[in-house]
Amino acid sequence: MKFSLKKPIKPKRQRLSPRIHIKVQNGQFEILGMGAWYSYWRDPYHLLLTIPWSGFIILICSFYIAINTLFALLYLVGGDCVANAQPGSFLDLFFFSVQTLASIGYGAMYPKTTYANIIVTIEAMIGLVGIAVMTGLAFARFSRPTARVIFSRVAVITSHEGVPTLMFRTANQRRNFILEAHMRVYLMRDEVTAEGTFIRRFHDLKLVRNQTPSFSLSWLLMHPIDEFSPLYGITAELLLKTNTTIVISLSGIDETVSQVVHSRHIYAADEIIWNSRFVDIFHHTNDGHRYIDYQHFHDVLPLD
Question: 273 with 152: CB under 8 angstroms?
Fold first, then answer.
C-alpha cells in the first residue's frame, strides 16, 4: 500500500486588521476606535447608516459639489458646447451641471454639440441613480426603529426574601408600549481554565421574571444569588479583580411602528453597589391613586 503526501490546503487570506486594541476603563472593556465612523470606508453602506446626521449631510453635500465640479470640467474641455453660457465660464457650466443632474432644465442653457449631448446623457443617468440611492439611504435612516429605554446608573446587591439578589431597573422613556419585552442578562469575567488558559467567559444570569407582555413604565429586574448563580460566594474585590461586567440586552416590539427594537446596557464591577436598595419611585396620592416619580430613579439607599 502506497501513501502519497499532499500539501495541506491553506484557506484564502482575508484582509483583516492586524491588531484590535482593547483597554479596561472603569471596569469596562473598550475597543479603541470602534465608535469612530471614519473607520468604515470599506463598507460604505454601513458607514452611511451609522454616521451622525451631521456627517451624513456633509458627505452628501461634498459628493454633490464634487460630481458637479467634475462634469463642469468635462463641459469646459468641450469648448463652446453649451448654448447661452459664457465661453470659458466655469461658474456657468457648474450651474448647468446642477440643472442637468437634478433634471430641472430651465431652458436658458442647453447642449448644442454632440459631445455636450453625450456628457448630458451620462450625467442624467448618474443623477437618476444618485437621487434613488440617496432617497433610499435617507429613508433607511429615518425608518430605523430605536428604543428610548433608560437603565439605572448602578445595580445593587441586597437581600430579597432572605436571598442575596442582584437588582437593577429600567424604564421606557416613550409613552407607548413595548410588547413582548424580553430581557437577557449575561455576566462576563476573566477566568483561567484547568489547563491554565486565560479566557473571557460568559455566564447566563437567570432572572425572577425575564419577560413582560407590555413594558410601558418601569421594570425592576432581579437575579437571586443562590448556589446555582455564577455570583455565588463572590465579593466586591473579586468582581474588580476578574474585570466582571454585567451585560443587559432588551428586545421587544414597538407598538407604534410594529417593529422589533433593541437596547442594551453594561454595568462595570464598580457600578454594582453592595448592601443597598433602590429608592422607591411609586407613591400614593391622598385620594388613593398611584404615581411614579422618576426624579429618584437612579438613587439608592444603604441598608442599616
Answer: no
Query: Domains of the chain, with CATH numbers?
Result: 52-143 (1.10.287.70), 149-302 (2.60.40.1400)
Please state, as a whole number, how many other Cβ atoms lie within 10 Å of the Cβ of residue 254. 18
Helices (H) and strands (E) in the chain, counts: 5, 18
Is the pTM higher than 0.70? The answer reads no
What lies within 8 Å, CB to CB, of 217 at 6+ separation is: 171, 172, 292
Q: Which residue has 466582571 as its cell numbers?
A: 244
Note the pLDDT tens digit of each residue in 104-153: 877 788 888 999 999 999 999 999 999 899 989 988 888 887 888 889 99
Cα 160 from Cα 182, distance rounded (Å): 22
Mean pLDDT of the 6-27 span: 51
pLDDT digits (tens, 9 = 90+) for 164-183: 999 999 988 888 888 999 99
Interstrand relation of 178-192 and 211-215 (parallel, antiparallel or unpaired):
antiparallel
Dihedral sign of CA atoms 220, 225, 231, 236 in order: positive
How far lies 281's CA from each of 12, 219, 220, 254, 273, in Å? 58, 11, 11, 25, 18
